[in-house]
Amino acid sequence: MSNREVVVLSVGGVRFVTRASTLQRFPESRLARMLNDDDQEFKLVNGEFFVDRDGTLFSYIMDFLRTLQLSLPTDFSDYQRLQREAEFYELYPLADLLSQEHLLKPRLEILEVRFSLHKMQAFFRIFGSCSTTVETLAEQITVFTGQQSGQSWNSPFPSQKPLVPLPLERPSHHDLVFRCGTDYSAGNPFVARFVSIKPDNRKLINGTNVLGLLLDTLLKDGFRLISTRTVSSEEKVECYSFERKKKPAGLNV
C-alpha cells in the first residue's frame, strides 16, 4: 500500500487511522481537499494531519464516512456541536441529517403488565406503547392446553398427552391477553394451560412462576421497572409498569 492509501489524523489529540478513499467519500468536503494540500487548516506534522478540533465528536464523523449512516448512542445530546463540526468539515449531508434532531433522539417506550389470580387460574394482559414490541412478545409467548394428570396446579409434571398450542388473544395492536392454570369447570381430568416464553423452553402452569419469567424477560430486553401498584384489591389485580429508551434506526444519506 502506498502512503496515499493510509492516512493518519490527529484531531484534538485523538489519533485516527483510515483510508484515503474514506476521507474522499464526499469530494467537496474539506477532508477530501486536505489530501491535496488545498486547506491550510490541516497541518501535516511528521506524516500526520493535525487539526485543532474536537476529537471525540470526530469519531462520529468517521463512522458516518465509513457507513454513510448516522447512528448515535442512546445518551447522546451534543447534536448542535456535532452539526457545527460537520459544517466545519463541509460535510453538508451529515449536517442536514443532524438538523433532523427530532428523528435522532431516542423515544421513551412504555409497557404495562396486569396480573390477576382467580381460584386456580392466572390472567395476564400486556399493554405497550410500541406495537412492534407487543408483536415481538406475542411471538415469544406460547400458550399450550392439555389435560393435567395431577390434582395440583403447582405440579411440575405436565400431562404425558401432547399439548396443543393456542393463539394469544390480541384485542388490538398494542396489547395481548393470555392465561394459565387449571380450569375446574372442565371436569375431571382437569384441563390446564401452560405458558412458555422464549428463549426459556419450560412450560409453566403456575401463574406466579409465569409472572416472574415474564418480568425477567422484559428486564433482560432493556426495560426498567418504574412502578408496581394494586389496581383492584378485590379482584387482586396487580400492575407492573416498565419503560425503556428505544434507540431510533440510523439515518442513511
From TrEMBL:
SMART domains: BTB. One of its GO terms (biological process) is monoatomic ion transmembrane transport. Transmembrane segments: none annotated. InterPro entries: BTB/POZ_dom (IPR000210), SKP1/BTB/POZ_sf (IPR011333), T1-type_BTB (IPR003131). It comes from the Eukaryota. The keyword Transcription does not apply. Gene3D superfamilies: Potassium Channel Kv1.1, Chain A. One of its GO terms (cellular component) is endoplasmic reticulum. Signal peptide: none annotated. Residues 5-106 form the BTB domain. It holds the Pfam family BTB_2. Keywords: Ion channel, Ion transport, Transport. This is Potassium channel regulatory protein. It comes from Antrostomus carolinensis. The lineage of its organism: Eukaryota, Metazoa, Chordata, Craniata, Vertebrata.
